Amino acid sequence: MTDDLLELMRVKVADGLQREKTKEAINGWERTALLTLKEGKEYNFLVKDNNIVVNSGSIDNPDMKIESDEDTIRKLFLEETSAASALLKRKLKVKGSASDLMKIRHIF
Questions:
Q1: pLDDT at 20
Q2: Assigned CATH topology for domain 2-103
Q3: What value does the mean pLDDT of the chain take?
């Protein structure tokens, strides 16, 4: 199941990169993020050179740490729920600088 989650995230990130708002948000921005699922799987995001790359696996010293479960992440990427709703329900935890957190809301 998690392999199709990786594919879903890659497809939705690629779709997002077509939007002008996303392009503006990541212009000149370089960050890494680690997504850890309660089910044990980890994914990493690299924002660099006006692109976002999603891979399976952990990374050292990410700029942002995201914790959730597979169902919530799937719903976020399918736009069936919002990050604000998931945060309020404590189904999503995000750690990072305030400016980074404000910027990522424009990406998806």
A1: 92
A2: Nonspecific Lipid-transfer Protein; Chain A (3.30.1050)
A3: 92
